[in-house]
UniProtKB/TrEMBL annotation:
Domain of life: Bacteria
Pfam family, one: GntR
UniProt xrefs under SUPFAM superfamilies: PLP-dependent transferases, Winged helix' DNA-binding domain
A GO molecular function held by the record: transaminase activity
Tagged with keyword Transcription: yes
Gene3D superfamilies the UniProt entry points to: Aspartate Aminotransferase, domain 1, Type I PLP-dependent aspartate aminotransferase-like (Major domain), Winged helix-like DNA-binding domain superfamily/Winged helix DNA-binding domain
UniProt record similarity statement: In the C-terminal section; belongs to the class-I pyridoxal-phosphate-dependent aminotransferase family.
Protein name as annotated: PLP-dependent aminotransferase family protein
Length: 471
């Protein structure tokens, strides 16, 4: 994997902005100065600046240069919470199953319903139906090969190639979604009683799997902008031997954080030094709002330490339970575990999906999806900032589906769950994202649905109910 020089400059400037070495409204060094100081071409410097501009960190003034955006620097991000220093067993609250039973993982008002199916999703359905009609006797009487159909694995490998990541189709195994892919990866790397490191706040689906497999978890603090705290991870690996580190580097749920390329490389080096696997959840990798290739950790993996997991459920359709695992060193074990837990993948869905990708429909769909989600993110965060900005902190993700809200210390989001249900509102409380019951005054909000008038009214009821909690 070649190292792109614009990424190094982009990361350097982002760090200076977020650490406020460049103050709000301050002009950053000129293009000429950046070229000379970093020994870069003008095109490379402009590419880095345009990416930071798309992220909203800087803005251009004609004939004057680039300046640091004021609103983003002023915004208070959620604070990092100190995590316990020792591993613990997981006990996922019953609340998780209640939320899932209401189909409300990413919607505070599920009764409002979703927007119409897009034209590209309709095209996908037609392609799946056409694939189902082709050779029906084959599909009815024979299982698919364990790894999954080769055309689909080739199509997925091509999607990663477009993200500057080389993956061989032979290293891919098709799964029943990303949750299944993560489950296979954890089983392949751990046995009962082992310790797994997770970013904190963590994806509650992973915590549920860790609980089921009888593993212990050690939480690693995560910055709402840059993700996993690698200093903390390194310190904890000195005292506790971990078998795997599960991380979502690109727009993780719930914070929407994005790990810089240098941190990805450092994580791989640490995994090699401490002998553990990195299980990468790349489910949001196609949902970056700056329309540039979004590098996974796997792009930097030259020692086989990264097990890459993903699916199409968040970027294309929840109904499409098709995911994948890519690993070099544990491929045979992953395929064996798939045979045990699923046996085979549905052939028609794979056939229709591979045609959908190779015809260019997938890229056209995700381009539209990214723009729609970016607009919905802006609408949601503007509403929060306008009405409750003085009473909460919130993340500002540049991709994915969700943001992380921190409320005053005395508020317990879980306490108001049942009360809000009586009004048809489903909130996702912070403690769901921790094995140690942290984040009681936090919640996840999603911008995966439009902020209709009904959802806007529900958002006001949600915040007012929480902020009016009696101490």
């Amino acid at each position: 994997m070649k190292k792109f020089r614009y990424l190094a400059l982009e990361e350097q400037l982002r760090h200076k902005i977020k650490s406020q070495r460049f103050k709000e409204g301050e002009k950053i060094p000129s293009v000429r100065a950046l070229c000379q100081h970093n020994e870069l071409s003008k095109a490379t410097v402009l590419h880095a600046l345009q990416r930071l501009e798309a992220e909203g960190l800087i803005y251009a003034v004609p004939k004057s240069g680039y300046f640091v955006s004021q609103t983003l620097v002023q915004r208070n991000l959620p604070t990092k919470v100190t995590t316990p220093s020792t591993p613990t067993q997981v006990n996922v609250p019953e609340l998780f199953r209640d939320i899932m039973s209401r189909s409300a993982a990413f919607d505070i008002l599920p009764k409002e319903g979703a927007p119409h199916v897009t034209s590209h999703q309709k095209t996908l359905n037609r392609m799946i139906n056409r694939a189902a009609r082709a050779r029906p006797e084959q599909k009815s009487n024979y299982y698919d090969e364990p790894k999954g159909q080769l055309p689909l694995r080739e199509a997925i490998a091509e999607l990663y190639r477009q993200r500057d990541t080389e993956i061989l189709p032979e290293s891919l195994c098709i799964t029943a979604g990303c949750q299944h892919a993560l489950f296979l990866s954890i089983m392949a790397t751990c046995k009962t009683g082992d310790t797994v490191a997770v970013e904190s706040p963590a994806f509650y689906g992973v915590l549920q799997q860790i609980e089921h497999l009888g593993l212990e978890v050690i939480e690693i603090s995560s910055d709402p902008s840059t993700g996993l705290d690698l200093d903390e991870l390194e310190n904890k690996t000195k005292n506790w031997p971990i078998k795997a580190c599960i991380v979502t580097p690109n727009f993780s749920t719930p914070t929407g954080s994005k790990m810089p390329p240098s941190a990805m490389q450092r994580l791989i080096s640490l995994a090699q030094d401490k002998d553990f696997f990195i299980i990468e959840d790349d489910i949001y990798g196609e949902l970056n709002f700056d329309n540039e290739p979004c590098l996974p950790i796997k792009a930097f993996d030259n020692c086989g330490r990264v097990i890459l997991c993903g699916s199409f459920s968040k970027c294309l359709s929840r109904e499409l339970r098709i995911g994948w695992v890519s690993t070099d060193r544990l491929q045979d074990k992953i395929v064996q575990l798939k045979l045990i837990t699923q046996l085979a993948s549905p052939q028609a869905a794979q056939g229709g999906l591979s045609e959908f990708i190779l015809s260019g429909n997938f890229k056209r769909h995700t381009n539209q999806q990214r723009q729609r989600l970016k607009t919905q993110r802006d609408e949601l965060l503007r509403e929060i900032e306008k009405h409750w900005g003085k009473n909460c902190r919130f993340s500002y993700p540049n991709g994915g589906l969700s943001c992380w809200i921190e409320l005053p210390q005395h508020i317990d989001t879980q306490r108001s769950y049942r009360q809000l249900l009586t009004k048809g509102i489903v909130l996702t409380p912070g403690p769901l994202f921790s094995a140690n019951g942290l984040y009681k005054n936090h919640m996840r909000l999603s911008f995966s649905h439009p902020l209709t008038e009904h959802r806007r009214a529900a958002l006001h009821v949600l915040f007012n109910t929480l902020l009016n909690q009696v101490v």
